[in-house]
Amino acid sequence: MKSNILRPAFLLLAGLGVASATLWGCNKGKPAAETTTNTAQTDRMNIKTESFGKTKEGTEVQLYTLTNQQGVQVKITNYGATVTSIITPDKNGQPGDVVLGFDSVAGYQSNAFLKSGPYFGAIVGRYGNRIAKGKFTLDDKTYTLATNNGENHLHGGNKGFDKVVWTAKPMPEQNALQLTYVSPDGEEGYPGTLTATVIYTLSEDNALKIDYTATTDKATPINLTNHSYFNLAAGQAPDALGHLLMLPADRYTVVNASLIPTGELRPVAGTAMDFTKPTAIGSRLAQVKGGYDHNYVLTNTDSGSKLAATVYEPTSGRYMEVFTTEPGIQFYSGNFLDGSLTGKNNTNYKQHYGFCLETQHFPDSPNQPEFPNTILRQGETYKTSTSYKFSAQDQQPAQ
Ligand code: GLA
């Protein structure tokens, strides 16, 4: 991100009162020499904690605000380990909120939200995406999961990780928030007690990094991801269809009518599925029945962190890069948004207002022996990492 546009954004955010004094507590009153020599001190950021309201079940949940010195601010609640807001400056230094969500936990528990089930910003699990007919066989035993998407299991079932209260621990030294959830043996039909930990870290280079770890006491499928919906125009465009998306993926997992993979990995070349070069999300949407809701197979199969997507929004100049250790990324073009939800800043979420880039293992892997493994066994540690990095650019960066 260009440093010349960041400083005004920082001042503007503070001036707008978006942040309280505690948010901006880093380096305050320290002489320049000290801030440049004492890294441990300068890295220590204050993490604001405030109430996010009470759940229907009567549990008080919190909202945590991570802020960096570049004018980026991320809000996360321990309800569903959900990212509720990401404020980043545009090319003129104007801050804007680039994710969909609500101002209090009530929004995430409203009947309209639960009915349309968009999973705004949440961590989905134990298995993000679909498992056919909610059934799989593991070590000769067949398990039956809750079915909540027609005959299939989606995003962890009726009460997935997006609908539970996580235990939060702010980590000010790292400008991070740790969230832990212990999923009991048998929850939504899954075997084994699974301890899942998610650490959100906001860096000074404007990346929101998400580190996932988990352990289990019995073999279980696992596929954790974040379900944020992005709209980098932050109110300056009527929908997200003008965003230029690039996915470095030369194949995708072909699905049947209920969005279960057939097992075929089909080349994207020459079709409306091809985003290997930056292309407007809306330009070929009409050619894809139901809109984009597909798992892309990243061409780079390195198990380390590699580029998984870039998105450029021409009006605001905002640019987002996604990096992941995962083999796949679900591109979902907000097809099921239908205008029934109105979120933060009184914004109505009509169809295609936001889109998701869910880094993941492939859907239905427990039933697809050819797909990369999603079974975690006792004694192993599940470990994946994804970053969403924000900047502002005058034009689409060269790929
Ligand atoms: C995922 C799924 C979609 C939809 C959304 C939530 O992206 O693949 O089909 O269920 O979550 O609405």
What proportion of the residues form beta strands (DSSP E)?
Answer: 35-45%
Oligomer: single chain
Strand order of the largest sheet: 11-12-13-14-28-24-23-18-21
The whole-number mean of residue pLDDT values reads 91
Could you tell me how far the N terminus lies from the C terminus, measured between alpha carbons in angstroms? 16 Å
Radius of gyration over all CA atoms, rounded: 20 Å
Which key phrases capture this entry?
disordered N terminus; binds alpha-D-galactopyranose; globular; 28 strands; 5 helices; mainly beta; 6-stranded antiparallel sheet; 399 residues; 9-stranded antiparallel sheet
Molecular structure report:
The strands form 7 sheets. A 9-stranded antiparallel sheet has the order 11-12-13-14-28-24-23-18-21, with no helix packed on it. The protein contains 5 helices and 28 strands. The protein is mostly beta strands and 399 residues long. Residues 117-119, 129, 154, 259, 293, 330, 332, 336, 356, 358 line the site of alpha-D-galactopyranose.
Brief summary:
The chain is mainly beta and 399 residues long. It has helices at 3-15, 32-37, 39-43, 105-109, 111-116; strands spanning 48-54, 60-67, 73-77, 82-89, 95-97, 123-124, 130-131, 135-138, 141-144, 153-154, 167-171, 176-183, 194-202, 207-216, 220-221, 225-226, 229-230, 244-246, 249-255, 261-267, 279-280, 293-298, 306-313, 318-324, 328-332, 355-360, 375-376, 382-392.
